């Protein structure tokens, strides 16, 4: 179909106006990520192998451990909301504004 999907773990953030997201069955979620990782590793695509590594890191993350890949938001990418606020990420617990496009040049 020519489509690609992204994966992420559930999280709480100011942007999504949510603070009660909880994974109730971590082993089941981890097993589904393991199945995805194994499927990606069966391909001949290095891109899919890197995605497998990323998804393997999400298993660590849902168990409360360190991610395999550090977050590099604000160094490589950033988020701009509709009001011009520039933030490192829209997934932080609190709104962390680095500046505003309407007020600064």
Describe the protein's architecture and organization.
A hairpin with a 4-residue loop joins strand 1 and strand 2. The protein is globular, with a radius of gyration of 17 Å. With 105 residues, it is mostly helical. Helices cover 31% and strands 7% of the residues. The protein has a three-stranded antiparallel sheet with strand order 1-2-3, with no helix packed on it. The chain contains two helices and three strands. The mean pLDDT is 85. The protein folds into two domains: 61 residues, no CATH class; 33 residues, no CATH class. Helix 1 packs antiparallel against helix 2.
Order of strands, widest sheet: 1-2-3
Number of helices, counting only DSSP H or I runs of 4 residues or more: 2
**By helix and strand content, what is the structural category?**
mainly alpha
Secondary structure: helix percent: 25-40%
Please indicate the percent range of residues in DSSP E strands (runs of 2 or more). 5-15%
Radius of gyration: 17 Å
Give the tally of β-strands.
3
Low-confidence stretches at least 5 residues in length (pLDDT < 50)? none
Q: Which series of helices and strands comes N to C?
A: HHEEE
Shape, please?
Answer: globular
Terminal Cα span: 42 Å
How many domains make up the 3D coordinates? 2
Note the main attributes of this structure.
single chain; mainly alpha; 2 domains; three-stranded antiparallel sheet; 2 helices; 4Fe4S-binding_SPASM_dom; Radical SAM domain-containing protein; Aldolase_TIM
Brief digest:
It is built from two helices and three strands. With 105 residues, it is mainly alpha-helical.
């Amino acid at each position: 179909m020519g489509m690609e999907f992204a994966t992420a773990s559930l999280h709480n953030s100011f942007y999504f106006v949510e603070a009660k997201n909880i994974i109730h069955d971590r082993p089941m979620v981890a097993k589904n990520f393991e199945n995805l990782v194994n499927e990606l590793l069966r391909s001949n695509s290095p891109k899919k192998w890197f995605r497998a590594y990323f998804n393997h890191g999400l298993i660590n993350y849902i168990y409360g451990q360190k991610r395999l890949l550090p977050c590099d938001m604000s160094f490589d990418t950033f988020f701009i909301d509709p009001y011009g606020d520039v933030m490192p990420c829209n997934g932080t617990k609190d709104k962390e504004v680095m500046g505003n496009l309407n007020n600064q040049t």
